[in-house]
Design brief:
By secondary structure, this protein is mainly α. The protein has a domain at 123-201 and 221-226 and 261-369. Helix content is 73%, strand content 0%. It contains 24 helices and no strands. The protein has helices at 15-49, 59-76, 78-81, 86-106, 112-143, 146-156, 161-175, 181-195, 200-219, 226-234, 246-261, 282-302, 307-327, 329-342, 346-353, 361-365, 369-388, 390-401, 404-414, 420-430, 436-448, 458-466, 473-477, 480-497. α7 (161-175) packs antiparallel against α8, α8 (181-195) packs parallel to α22 and α12 (282-302) runs antiparallel to α13. The two termini are 49 Å apart. This is Sodium/proton antiporter, NhaD family. Keywords: Antiport, Ion transport, Membrane, Sodium, Sodium transport, Transmembrane, Transmembrane helix, Transport. One of its GO terms (molecular function) is antiporter activity. Belongs to the NhaD Na(+)/H(+) (TC 2.A.62) antiporter family.
Length: 502
């Protein structure tokens, strides 16, 4: 996407007086902001002297909240404004920490804000490198045409619309715990768009089903969503404990899927197309990705190493495979050319004519950097608000004034409006004293709560762009009561099956 920066200039007819007025207005605004900041710093200084380390009731705290709310409003309007979501939160993160550090410095505290910021940066760096490796593997599989081959296989089997509705939903549910829910949703949506071109109603229903399935599947695995990854890396839930959410997550998917299946069109889809042939190394990439996950889990569970160490080790696996594919490139192409000529496969011959050696840095370059930078902004924004003291107050409201079960259910509903990443990071930053059953409950609700609205999860937002005109906010909203039924059923199932953990 090309961005055009338009510099604003004053119209020439305004003259010198307009210029002076414009500058005076800017000066007054700067003085007002500085005054608020200075007043907040002075009140913080007096609060620090009296032992109250909080800015929640002072202008600096109010200004930080306002900055975060405005930035997140831009995030929620991303589809309308076409402004990448990382931009406003990156700016907000910097502004909030400048306010916090300035207030702390003027009170004579030059260390605590710096130490808090470094803790947030450490948490982010671990997640950044973990996600970088996972996204690189997914991009490598895509480059090797693994997902295209899967899509072609499904299309060419001649399934009915109802069969494809269930197949894509089940695949989304079982693939998202290994890949992430966003990639899985995009893959399954590509299948729907291919076979359902003549049935907009099928595409709309199938997209809703995929969003629900991908979010539900991602809830019972540390690798299925960024929120579950954060919970695992924080150490509040062990790797094997996530699988206790399998049945509740399945209920969350199956309840609305069964009801929606009655609305799936009965006519057959259009004729199939030619199959896609995977590139060399596609299956080996999958095997190495599974080996990478195993390495990360074993290192984390038995050696108590951060999971990112195993993931970075797994990146080396992929690099060595890439090296092998490079040195054997000519020999491999020659062998495939002989096979293609013997089978008169003109499509494969055309592809071999354009083939280039595998380069590990090409999949790495296609990483979703907007998401990673957005995550940086969220972590620092929430960390700054936590340093000010807002998270302590929210934790008191939710987990002391309310009961933990009601709070965790409300957090899931909140994730349908606000992205589940800042919601879950805020909960982890609060560190409420909860049982394992409650931690699993908030993991479940934050993961599947976003399915209630199309804007509530990355999968839903992405599919609105991919299936534009077929899958919309209103298309999803018509089925929200059914999805809420699945949400309630999954919570009830978890409370019943895992009652011994509460």
């Amino acid at each position: 996407m090309t961005e055009i920066c338009n510099s604003e200039t004053l119209p020439p007819h305004r003259g010198l007086h307009s210029v002076i007025a414009h500058r005076n207005m800017a000066t007054r605004m700067a003085l007002i902001i500085f005054g608020l900041f200075a007043f907040g710093c002075s009140t913080f200084a007096s609060a620090a002297e009296s032992g109250i380390q909080s800015l929640t009731n002072h202008p600096v705290g109010y200004l930080a909240i306002a900055i975060f709310v405005i930035a997140y409003a831009f995030v929620m309007l991303e589809e309308k404004l076409h402004l990448r979501k990382s931009k406003p939160v990156l700016l907000a993160a910097g502004l909030i920490w400048f306010l916090v550090a300035g207030a702390a410095a003027m009170s004579g505290d030059t260390e605590s804000a710096n130490a808090a910021l470094k803790r947030n940066l450490l948490e982010y760096s671990e997640l950044l490198l973990f996600l970088l490796v996972a996204m690189t593997y997914i991009n490598a599989m895509e480059e090797r045409q693994l997902f295209d081959a899967l899509r072609g296989w499904l299309v060419n089997k001649g399934f009915s619309y109802l069969s494809l509705f269930w197949i894509t939903g089940l695949l989304a549910f079982f693939i998202s715990p290994i890949a992430d829910n966003l990639t899985t949703a995009l893959l399954m949506c590509a299948v729907l768009m291919k076979v359902g071109e003549d049935s907009p109603r099928f595409i709309g229903l199938g997209c809703i089903n995929i969003v629900i399935a991908a979010n539900a599947g991602g809830a019972f695995s540390p690798f299925g969503d960024i929120t579950t990854l954060m919970v695992w890396q924080k150490g509040v839930v062990e790797f094997t404990e996530f699988f206790r959410l399998f049945i509740p997550a399945a209920v969350n998917f199956l309840v609305p899927a069964v009801i929606m299946s009655f609305a799936v069109p009965s006519e057959p889809p259009k004729d199939a197309t030619d199959p896609v042939i995977m590139k060399r190394g596609a299956r080996r990439t999958v095997a190495l990705f599974l080996l990478t996950i195993t390495t990360a889990v074993l290192g984390h569970n038995f050696l108590h190493l951060p999971a990112v160490v195993g993931m970075m080790m797994g990146l080396a696996y992929l690099q060595f495979l890439g090296y092998y594919l490079q040195i054997s490139f000519k020999r491999g192409v020659a062998r495939e050319r002989v096979w293609a000529e013997n089978h008169q496969n003109t499509r494969l011959l055309e592809r071999l004519d354009k083939a280039v050696p595998f380069d590990i840095f090409n999949p790495m370059a296609r990483t979703e950097w907007d998401t990673l930078l957005f995550f940086y902004g969220v972590v620092l924004c929430v960390g700054g608000l936590g340093y000010i003291g807002y998270l302590s107050e929210v934790s008191q409201l939710l987990y002391a004034d309310w009961n933990a079960t009601g709070a965790n259910i409300a957090i899931g509903a909140m994730s349908a409006i606000v992205d589940n990443i800042p919601v879950m990071f805020a909960v982890l930053s609060m560190e409420p004293d909860m049982s394992h059953g409650q931690w699993l409950l908030v993991t479940l609700t934050a993961g599947v709560g976003g399915s209630m609205l199309s804007i509530g999860s990355a999968a839903g937002v992405a599919l609105m762009g991919q299936a534009r005109g077929y899958y919309t906010i209103m298309t999803h909203l018509r089925w929200t009561p059914v999805i809420m039924l699945g949400y309630a059923a999954s919570i009830a199932t978890h409370l019943w099956l895992n009652a011994n953990l509460f």
